[in-house]
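Worked problem 6 (solution included).
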Amino acid sequence: MALLKWTKKYSVGVKALDAQHINLVKRLNELHAAMLKGKGQSIAGPLLLKMTEESSEHFAAEERLMAETKYPGLDEQRAEHRDLACKVAEFMARYDQGDQTMYPELLRFVGNWLHNHMLAVDKEYTMWMNKHGIY
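Solution. The predicted structure is:
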């Protein structure tokens, strides 16, 4: 059972960014599935690294499009992205220290963040991007 299921309601109207969001949701669900099978410790590290790399690439792509179109909410998006990167770094540090109690908190945090960020923060740029020819 997926922790977060991708549906059209999450679409931001930009194909490349939607594909990246879908991939981040997929990684979250892979981590959730691994934890349900008792394989969180062996899988969490590599998945966290993948999620960190993929989120960084995604944030860079989003911010690049926002800068190109002079999106007025760029600074707020950058702040949100920095906050997530800091929180994920905290989880990585806990993982590196062998803290196996952090998995439920990690799943809850990332799942909630993705859900809220895609539905609220990212949705704000949909019309702006489309108005500037980015689909």
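Discussion: The chain has five helices and no strands.
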